[in-house]
Design a protein that fits this description.
mainly alpha; two-stranded antiparallel ribbon; 65% helix; GT87; membrane; transmembrane; cell membrane
Length: 470
C-alpha cells in the first residue's frame, strides 16, 4: 500500500471512530434527559392528585376540589382555569374575546400572550374534564422541559442536574404554562454559546433574538434579554471595535418575530388580543400576588385602597425598569474592565430585579430563574438557600390559604404555614437582592463563545472535551 493510500485509510479509520470523550458526553446528556423526564413525571403526578375521582357536569373535579387544592398543596393554574375562560367550551382564544371593566375575561381571552393562549387551546382540544386538560397540557409541555434539560446539559454538563432534579420542576412544571418560555430563553443562550457552527456571532445573535421574540410571545420576560444580547453582539462581534450593524439586527429580529406572531390575532380580534394586557394592568396587589409590596405595606396594601393600588401601578414598573438599567450599565462597566460583556449574567440580574420588584410574584416564576443557576457559577450556598426559601413559600402559601378559608388559626404564632410564608417572602426577597449582585460579579464562563463546528476527525481526537458542552 502506498504512503498516500495508507494515510487515507488511517484517516478513514480515525474519522469513523468515536472518541471516549464524545461517548461520555452522550451518556451525560442521556442521563440528564432521563432524569428530567422522571422529574417531570413526578411533577405531573403531584398536580394530578387534585383531579377526580368524580366530575361535575362542567368537568370540574369533585368532591371538595376547592379544599383539596390548598390542603393537599396540589393546586395548578392549568386545572383551575378549565372553568372561567371558556377553555372548557373549546373557544379559540382572543378572536371573539373581551374584558369587562372589573377585569373579567370573556369570549376565549386569557391573561397570557398569544402563543401561550394557543397552547392552552391545544391542551384542551380533546379534553372534557379538568383532569383531561391537565394531562393534555402536560403532554404538550413535557417535550419543552426535556429540551431544556438537553440544552443545559450541552452548555453546562453535570451542573444541569439542578434542572433535571430540581424541586421547582416537581412543584411548578405543570403549575402554569411556563416550560415553553423557559426552553426559548435557554435555546437563545445555546444559539450564542453552544451551537457548533461556523456562523458568525452576528448570525447566531439574530437566531437567539428570534428565540427571545418567541419567548416574549409565550410569557413576556425573555424580551428583557434582547438588550443585553444586542450589547454582547455589539462588543464581541468584531473584537477591538463596536459592530453597530450586527447589534441593531438583534432587536430588529426580535421585534419582527413578536409582530409576525401577534399581528394575525390583532387583526382577527383586537379587543380580545388587547384584553390579555389589560387584565395584567388591572391586577391588584393582594395576598395572592405574594410580592414584597403586599406583605411590606400591610394594611395599606389592601386591594380596596385605591391610592395605594394606583401608586403601585406606576411605582412597581418604574423600579423594575430602573433595575434593568442598573444591570445593563454594570454589565457595560464589566465590559470596559474585562473586555467581555456578560450578557447572560446581566439577563439573570434583570430577571432578579423583575422578580423582586414586580407587583406580582407567581410561584412558577422560580422556573424562569433555575436555568441561570445552571448557566452562571452562582455559589452553591446561595442556590440551596433560594431553593429552600422557595420550597417554604411553595408549600406554606397553600397551607396558609387552607387555614384562612377553613377558619383555622393562621397567625404567625399559630404554626408552620404563616411562618413558612414569612420565610418565603422575605428570605426570597433578600436572596434576589444578593443574586442581583452575584450575577453581575461572577465571571462569564460562556463568554468564550461557541465551540467550532465539529468534523468527524475533530470528534475523534477529543473535540468534545470542552467543559461547557458534552
Amino acid at each position: 500500500m502506498t504512503g498516500a493510500a495508507l494515510s487515507t485509510a488511517r484517516g478513514e479509520r480515525v474519522a469513523t471512530s468515536v472518541h471516549p470523550l464524545a461517548r461520555t458526553g452522550r451518556v451525560v446528556l442521556a442521563v440528564l434527559v432521563l432524569l428530567t423526564g422522571i422529574t417531570l413525571l413526578l411533577g405531573y403526578e403531584n398536580k394530578a392528585r387534585c383531579t377526580g375521582p368524580e366530575f361535575e357536569d362542567n368537568g370540574r373535579s369533585t368532591p371538595d376540589y376547592g379544599v383539596r387544592i390548598e390542603r393537599d398543596v396540589c393546586y395548578s393554574d392549568i386545572q383551575h382555569l378549565w372553568i372561567g375562560r371558556d377553555i372548557d367550551h373549546h373557544v379559540f382564544p382572543y378572536v371573539s374575546g373581551s374584558i369587562t371593566p372589573d377585569g373579567q375575561l370573556l369570549g376565549g381571552s386569557v391573561e397570557y400572550p398569544v402563543l401561550t393562549g394557543l397552547l392552552i387551546w391545544a391542551g384542551a382540544l380533546f379534553a372534557h374534564t379538568d383532569a383531561g386538560f391537565l394531562l393534555g397540557s402536560a403532554l404538550l409541555m413535557a417535550p419543552f422541559g426535556l429540551l431544556t434539560g438537553w440544552l443545559l446539559g450541552r452548555l453546562a454538563r453535570w451542573r444541569a442536574l439542578l434542572w433535571a432534579l430540581g424541586p421547582p420542576v416537581v412543584l411548578y412544571a405543570f403549575h402554569n404554562w411556563d416550560l415553553p418560555v423557559v426552553a426559548c430563553a435557554v435555546a437563545a443562550v445555546f444559539a450564542v454559546h453552544g451551537w457548533r457552527t461556523d456562523r458568525s456571532l452576528a448570525q447566531r445573535g439574530t437566531v437567539a433574538a428570534v428565540l427571545l421574540g418567541l419567548g416574549f410571545a409565550f410569557k413576556l420576560y425573555p424580551g428583557a434579554f434582547v438588550l443585553p444580547l444586542a450589547l454582547y453582539v455589539l462588543a464581541e462581534s468584531r473584537p477591538g471595535r463596536l459592530d453597530w450593524r450586527a447589534a441593531v439586527r438583534v432587536p430588529l429580529a426580535a421585534t419582527a418575530t413578536v409582530v409576525l406572531v401577534n399581528v394575525p390575532f390583532m387583526l382577527a380580534g383586537y379587543e380580545g388580543w388587547r384584553a390579555s394586557f389589560t387584565f395584567q394592568q388591572l391586577r391588584k396587589v393582594d395576598f395572592t400576588t405574594n410580592s414584597i409590596w403586599f406583605w411590606g405595606f400591610r394594611p395599606e396594601s389592601d386591594p380596596d385602597n385605591v391610592d395605594f393600588q394606583s401608586t403601585m401601578d406606576w411605582l412597581s414598573p418604574t423600579l423594575v425598569l430602573l433595575s434593568f438599567a442598573v444591570a445593563v450599565a454594570l454589565g457595560w462597566w464589566r465590559f470596559r474592565r474585562d473586555g467581555v460583556y456578560p450578557w447572560v449574567g446581566v439577563s439573570a440580574a434583570m430577571l432578579c430585579g423583575f422578580l423582586l420588584l414586580h407587583k406580582v410574584h407567581s410561584p412558577q416564576y422560580t422556573l424562569w430563574l433555575l436555568p441561570f443557576f445552571v448557566l452562571v457559577q452562582v455559589p452553591w450556598s446561595l442556590v440551596a438557600a433560594y431553593l429552600l426559601a422557595d420550597l417554604a413559600m411553595g408549600i406554606g402559601i397553600f397551607r396558609w390559604y387552607y387555614q384562612l378559608h377553613a377558619g383555622l388559626p393562621s397567625g404567625i404564632y399559630d404554626g408552620f404555614a404563616a411562618q413558612a410564608v414569612t420565610v418565603g417572602v422575605w428570605g426570597r426577597a433578600a436572596l434576589l437582592l444578593a443574586l442581583f449582585v452575584v450575577f453581575l460579579r461572577v465571571p462569564d464562563r460562556l463568554a468564550a463563545g461557541p465551540l467550532p463546528r465539529r468534523t468527524p476527525v475533530a470528534e475523534s481526537v477529543g473535540a468534545t472535551g470542552d467543559t461547557r458542552a458534552p
